[in-house]
Predict the 3D structure of the following.
Amino acid sequence: MSLETARLHLRPVTASDVATLFSIYGDPATNTFNPAGPYPDIQYAETVMNRWLTHWQQNGFGNWAISFRDAPERVIGFGGLSVVTHADITVNNLGYRFATEAWGKGLATEFALGAVKYGFDALTLPEISAVVRSNHLASQKVLEKAGLKYIREIHDVKNAPPSLLYSLRIEAWRKE
């Protein structure tokens, strides 16, 4: 299911996106706040892509390749909604990562707002959550602008400080 926001075009990922996935997720700059660090090689990106494609087949939603509406052939990021288990809980996870050239333009907020709306309007998910590192203030602001609220710390990465769990229930979203 493709989706458009004011400036962005979102389409389901395809196997042909793996090189772009590696270029974005393998970039040390885009992993500044990721304790696991950048993807080590293209094979790792292929494993992740296969997991994303399987998620789409099993759930009918998942990660999108993100591009500008006026240049849909050039992917600038990836993000979406996926069922993920973090620490002791399973959530409908909102996640995203953009190439550095897309930073500072409000695109993550625009994406997050569109994904949340899609998750609640089209998928009628009962709740959407996100996990962010405590020192990643920009991403925390994106989640707050999308309506998610801080819930609690979770220990989702072994031998790393806890992450922060943000969440928004459909009832609260409908009231806003």
